[in-house]
Amino acid sequence: MSRLKVLFLTPAVPWPSDSGGRLRTSQLIQRAGREAEVTLYSVSPPGGSPPPPAELQSACERVRVFKRTRPGLLARLALSKLERSFHSRELFEATQTALTTSAFDLVHVDELSVARALGPARATPAIIHHHKLDARLQRDLSERHLGVTDGEVAKVRALEKKVARAHSSHAACSREEARYLEERYEVRCAVVPNGVDADHYRPPSSPRDPETVLFLGTLSYEANVHGLE
Question: What b/e sequence results for 130-157 when a residue is b if at least 16 CB atoms lie within 10 Å of its CB, and e otherwise?
Fold first, then answer.
């Protein structure tokens, strides 16, 4: 029996694993690679990125990294900043070719920011993976006057709605976020919690203060601020 062929679309190469998003994506790919043939399509950051580690490359049948491109004038007006930041015409064209030739059994879309690469609905099933609820996060940032305009909120909300209408299978990090998507858009949403390599991060055996909590995370990311509060 042939193995399932899965295409991972990510807005950035999930390496180095120096952020929660990259770490989560890298771990998902490595786990998926045990059960399926994984091909990774990613968008290169400005200035390029170092080659992914052996663990990630060994989990994939193929890794392709595409250049970011500046969208045209009309697209710049229509697309949210979220999408413009990871825009790649090459990624879109390569994905369309792959789906047209039925090269894959499943597409894993790692963020809303690259969901338009799927183009029109096709026979190849796709699962939309949400690291966070982008529309709700943008709304919260706008309400806190943290540099997000009402127009940006509206664009991200429209993108979320469009993707949910086109694709009924989703995955979220928590039961609360899955419930939001299920109730708002009547989609199926699996819960894939964040984990941690407990052996790698095992603390020393020195005495601990039971009234002290260590929080690891960048505080330039609003969701982490919410979590800390």
Answer: bbbbbbbbbbbbbeeeeebeeebbebbb
Token pair of 133 as six digits: 């609820």
Taking the C-alpha atoms of 133, 138, 144 and 150 in order, what is their torsion angle to the nearest 10 degrees?
-150
> Is the pTM higher than 0.90?
no
DSSP 144: T
Q: Are strands 60-66 and 36-43 parallel, antiparallel or unpaired?
A: parallel
Find the DSSP H helices in 60-198: 73-78, 81-84, 89-100, 134-143, 150-166, 175-185
Question: Would you say residue 121 has pLDDT above 70?
Answer: no
Of residues 202 and 39, the one with the higher pLDDT is 39
How far lies 9's CA from each of 52, 64, 78, 184, in Å? 15, 10, 22, 25
Contact 142, 148 (CB under 8 A): yes
**How much helix, strand and coil, in percent to the nearest 5, is found in the chain?**
40, 15, 45
